[in-house]
């Protein structure tokens, strides 16, 4: 085989080897993402000198959510993944970005990166994304976020669970994207009301 491959052109070698090597699963026709309902206004300048600031941490997740695939709770003790449903990036990062946009637009809070917060006293919003997928037993998209908030100049940590459930017409990629986006925005709006409350 080695001597016969040497006599082939590079293109022919690539064709022969392509049947032996796989570079990953075939990607789905389209990828899912999240879009914040409350968007920061273009061109508007914010300053931490006259508004509260906060760092939004990417939430921790269980193994089932550490992938770009969309989990579906098939039964009480079984988790599968929705066929052809895949996020543009891990859902925890998408959710953190949606939270940041919602806090900026709805609560008028300046969202800083961890590096920016070193020289600017700010609050900190961390937490765990406990659920971010579909529940086949109830035909719902489910988002559960356990938030942990440390306010500016505070030492105590406040914790609160936020949960949203949105009906899905089918357990498929199209329904998953739209319903999870709606549920994520509902949770983000409730978090923004809580964080901006005082």
Automatic annotation (TrEMBL):
<protein>
    <submittedName>
        <fullName>Cholesterol transport system auxiliary component</fullName>
    </submittedName>
</protein>
<dbReference type="InterPro" id="IPR005586">
    <property type="entry name" value="ABC_trans_aux"/>
</dbReference>
<dbReference type="Pfam" id="PF03886">
    <property type="entry name" value="ABC_trans_aux"/>
</dbReference>
<feature type="domain" description="ABC-type transport auxiliary lipoprotein component">
    <location>
        <begin position="34"/>
        <end position="192"/>
    </location>
</feature>
């Amino acid at each position: 085989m080695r001597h016969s491959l040497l006599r082939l052109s590079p293109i022919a070698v690539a064709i022969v080897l392509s049947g032996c090597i796989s570079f990953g699963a075939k990607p789905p026709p389209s990828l899912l993402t999240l879009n914040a309902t409350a968007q920061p206004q273009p061109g508007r300048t914010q300053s931490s000198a006259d508004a509260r600031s906060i760092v939004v941490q990417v939430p921790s997740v269980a193994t089932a959510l550490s992938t770009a695939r969309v989990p579906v709770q098939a039964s009480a003790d079984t988790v599968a993944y929705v066929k052809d449903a895949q996020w543009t990036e891990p859902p925890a990062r998408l959710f953190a970005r949606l939270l940041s946009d919602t806090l900026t637009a709805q609560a008028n809070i300046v969202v800083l990166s961890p590096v920016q917060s070193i020289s600017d006293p700010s609050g900190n919003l961390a937490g765990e994304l406990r659920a971010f997928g579909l529940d086949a037993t109830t035909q719902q998209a489910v988002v559960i976020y356990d938030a942990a908030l440390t306010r500016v100049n505070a030492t105590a940590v406040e914790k609160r669970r936020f949960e949203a459930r949105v009906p899905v017409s089918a357990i498929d990629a199209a329904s998953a994207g739209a319903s999870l986006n709606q549920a994520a925005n509902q949770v983000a709006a409730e978090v923004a009301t809580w964080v901006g409350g005082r």
